[in-house]
Design brief:
It is a single chain. The protein is of the alpha/beta class and 381 residues long. The protein contains 14 helices and 16 strands. The chain folds into 2 domains: 203 residues, Class I glutamine amidotransferase (GATase) domain (Rossmann fold); 114 residues, Class I glutamine amidotransferase (GATase) domain (Rossmann fold), CATH 3.40.50.880. It is 39% helix and 17% strand.
């Protein structure tokens, strides 16, 4: 039996892409590079300068989405940070108005369709933020992104959102960051060059980030570009973020045979059966609930659903989260109200380690490309 299962695993691992928020081709781990503080400072300032507003009036940010499948934290975190900062008009834009199904869990309402956005903003968006989507090559999304870029929009690909940028030809001849598993695929673009050890990077109005958890520092850098460093610092303090510079250690993140098998088991979810209910109410924090939901679901053991006695709820950002009635069969997934939003992820990782072991926590961190710290590894019992 095991020989047959092992053959299935090997065949499946060759056939599917293994990534935290997208797909790609396997590549050897990037060797560590010493941090050049001067180069980091230049790259940070280059991002801020490239993202400064160029038109009069309040900037317009289009959060691009695919109705059938958009990565949960890639979409909700930048949207929530920008709404809190109140430095721009922010719209979620998708092929169809209304509902967006998020992966690995949850659904939101409130997307504007492409035609409506174009009527409201005939000059185009100032910025387009592109999360990971499945499939990553939706023709309507690609065409609209190309149109916005041609009108002068600065484009930011979050995590495996870089795959859509590649489909649109926006990485050709450019340097990029990107999720660790996508590097091999992205390097196939003509003249594209991967730069290791950067959480985010900009090259001629096109920016990319590493994994899911880079979305907050990259968005804070955008807040700095639009609203100034004091505004970004205030937002970082409110969210529980120590800094938003581009420094990142790429070397710890990569695929090994063991990690590949772990991913496949998670993806096929042979044992997935634990249901968790996230009780939500109006004003719930988008960032905390997205990070906790994403992490628990990526264990491969847990399905998370939002529940509310009153039905759909309006999150703090203004998005409407689809929620159904609670059931007795599912365990609650509580959030810690006393934590700052981003700190919820470290707490969740500690809870995952306590329930499923350190190896499963470490895999979740690999998928999310989230570095190990005392806060998420030296957990109090």
């Amino acid at each position: 039996m095991w020989n047959g299962l092992r053959a299935l695993l090997c065949a499946s691992m060759a056939a599917i892409g293994l990534a935290g928020c997208g797909t790609g081709t396997r590549e050897a781990a990037v060797p560590p590079a010493a941090h050049d503080e001067a180069a980091l400072a230049r790259d940070r300032q280059a991002f801020v300068e490239a993202m400064k507003p160029r038109r009069p009036g309040r900037p317009v940010v289009a959060m691009l989405a695919l109705n059938e499948g958009t990565e949960l934290t890639d979409l909700l975190l930048p949207h929530a940070v920008l709404q809190r900062a109140d430095v721009a008009e922010v719209r979620i834009v998708a092929p169809r108005a209304g509902r967006v199904t998020l992966f690995p869990a949850l659904q939101v309402e409130g997307a504007q369709d492409f035609a409506a956005f174009d009527r409201a903003h005939p000059a185009g968006a100032d910025y387009v933020i592109v999360p990971a989507m499945e499939p990553a090559d939706a023709p309507a999304v690609r065409a609209w992104l190309q149109q916005q870029a041609s009108r002068g929009a600065r484009v930011i690909g979050v995590c495996s959102g870089a795959l859509m940028l590649a489909q649109a030809g926006l990485l050709d001849g450019r340097r990029f960051a990107g999720h660790w598993y996508d590097r091999g695929t992205l390097r196939k673009q003509p003249g594209a060059t991967h730069v290791p050890d950067r959480r985010y990077l900009v090259d001629r109005d096109v920016a990319t980030t590493t994994g899911i958890t880079a979305s907050v520092p990259a968005t804070l850098a955008l807040v700095e570009a639009i609203g100034g460093p004091a505004k970004a610092a205030a937002m970082a303090a409110e969210l529980g973020v120590n800094g938003w510079g581009p420094a990142h250690a790429s070397a710890p993140f990569g695929l090994t045979t063991g990690r590949g098998a772990e991913y496949l088991f998670n993806k096929t979810a042979f044992w997935r059966g634990e249901r968790r209910q996230l009780e939500v109410r109006d004003g719930a924090d988008d960032i905390a609930l997205a990070l906790a939901t994403d992490a628990w679901t990526r264990t491969g053991h847990v399905d998370v659903e939002a529940v509310s006695a009153s039905g759909p709820v309006k999150l703090r950002s203004g998005l409407v989260l689809v929620a159904g009635p609670a059931t007795r069969e599912a365990r609650p997934l509580p959030l810690v109200a006393t934590l700052k939003p981003v700190q919820q992820l470290d707490r969740t990782l500690c809870e995952i380690a306590s329930r499923y072991g350190n190896a499963r926590r470490d895999w979740v961190m690999q998928e999310m490309e989230y570095p190990r710290t005392a806060a998420n590894t030296a957990c109090a019992s």
